[in-house]
Design brief:
14 helices, binds adenosine-5'-triphosphate, alpha/beta, six-stranded mixed beta sheet, elongated, binds magnesium ion
């Protein structure tokens, strides 16, 4: 069956008053964006606390659903058969026809739930419920009515046209991107950071990203992998400005000047500093990382404290309490896993010490960083200046 409209359900808790408009307008924008290059013509509009997507032209219903399933803020997608408003007899025929096509197996129970949005329609919603119910029962003797727990809720909406639907396809939930500000994601080629970006974007936050690479120690392919991951996150989060920072000279300098067991922590601190520079410049309200407590030496509570210390913006770590297995599950579900496990080198693993400190003392780390005083300012400035920005869609 082809559908002419999709009725979008969204969570309404906590979005009362003025916020509701912002939420709905952002959702309309995000839906338009998700459909911008799909074949067909789409009209996305809100009406009476609902959002509708009317489809025209050569569109593919399945493709439309696939795209809507990636839009944060959508709780459910109802594929609607939209019919001309050609009198009540025709409405009954359309409802019977809908049931016939949607439910080839008629051994089901159902209930009609009508809504008369067009108040001038001559039949009221109670009557529609009763009369359409009768028409369906008459057409299909096996079908039964169950008003408490029906297998099928047959929704009928009378608007300028007649909208008939019964299925609700789950959406991703969350809030429309753009309703909760912007944050900068430290995006590596691993499994965790794309998931972290997804989770924060799901709360309505627009994402920018920063990737540190170290050519020639890390390859062009490693960089491409991160661009690909950003693309996959952008399927949900919308366009992402990806900053690609050349970190080689900073890493080599740290390697020369600092104790090797502190390398990872000190490198991480410079990543945070540089990310925060871009974040502030671009109006981001926080940083995002894929860290989780105790996952590796650089993610113990002491290490997290040491990396946290260099930033003044809040650092959001949505995976902080997740086990690796749980992170992998999300990454499989959102489609980043296959790319994340491709075996390309990461700048942190190349300069990693055999026995990194697991309980760094912040004062000791600060002291070690004093060894960098001579050149680090210049190197950071140069890394910022030579940063390449890729607009990922
Ligand atoms: P991931 O799977 O996200 O790479 P990980 O388990 O490999 O995480 P680490 O390498 O310790 O963990 O990195 C912790 C976090 O630091 C990452 O989740 C990411 O947010 C950030 N990070 C690490 N390396 C880079 C990098 N090269 N560029 C940008 N951010 C990075
Ligand atoms: Mg990593």
């Amino acid at each position: 069956m082809t559908f002419q409209t999709f009725l979008i359900k969204y969570g309404e808790i906590g979005i009362k008053g003025k916020n509701r408009y912002l939420f709905e307008d952002a959702l309309v924008r995000q839906i338009r964006f998700a459909l911008r290059d799909a074949e067909g013509r789409f009209s996305v509009y809100k009406s009476q606390a609902r959002i509708y997507v009317d489809c025209e032209g050569n569109y593919d219903s399945d493709e439309v659903v696939e795209r809507l399933r990636n839009v944060f803020g959508i709780v459910g997608i109802c594929p609607v058969a939209r019919r001309e408003n050609a009198g009540f007899d025709q409405l009954k025929r359309d409802a019977v026809d809908y049931m016939d096509q949607m439910y080839p197996d008629k051994n089901i129970t159902f209930k009609v739930e009508a809504r008369r949005a067009k108040k001038t329609y001559p039949v009221n919603s109670m009557e529609i419920n009763r009369l359409v119910g009768e028409a369906v029962l008459e057409a299909f003797p096996e079908i039964r009515v169950d008003v408490h727990k029906p297998d099928v809720m047959l929704y009928i909406e009378v608007r300028d046209q007649i909208y008939i639907y019964s299925r609700i396809i789950p959406g991703p939930g969350g809030m429309p991107v753009g309703t909760n500000g912007k944050a900068a994601l430290l995006l590596s080629g691993g499994i965790d950071s794309p998931v972290a970006g997804y989770m924060i974007a799901k709360r309505g936050v627009q994402i920018e990203a920063v990737y540190f690479h170290a050519p020639p120690y890390t390859s062009e392919r490693a960089k491409q992998k991160v661009i690909d991951l950003a693309k996959q996150v952008a399927k949900y989060a919308g366009p992402i400005r990806l900053h690609i920072v050349n970190f080689t000279d900073i890493q080599l300098y740290i390697y020369d000047q600092c104790p090797h067991e502190e390398l990872t922590i000190i490198m991480r601190r410079y990543m945070m500093r540089i990310s925060e520079y871009f974040a502030k410049k671009d109006g981001c309200l926080g940083l995002i990382t894929g860290e989780s407590i105790g996952q590796v030496a650089s993610q113990t509570m002491q290490s997290l404290a040491a990396t946290n210390e260099v930033c003044s913006l809040p650092v959001y770590r949505p995976l902080i309490g997740f086990d690796k297995k749980e992170i992998v599950e999300v990454s499989e579900r959102i489609g980043t896993y296959e790319t994340s496990i491709l075996p390309y080198e990461d700048c942190c693993t190349i300069f990693v010490a055999k026995h990194p400190v697991t309980k760094p003392n912040v004062n000791v780390i600060r002291k070690s960083e004093e060894n960098l005083a001579e050149k680090i300012g210049e190197l950071v400035a140069e890394a910022i200046e030579t940063t390449q920005i890729v607009e990922v869609k």
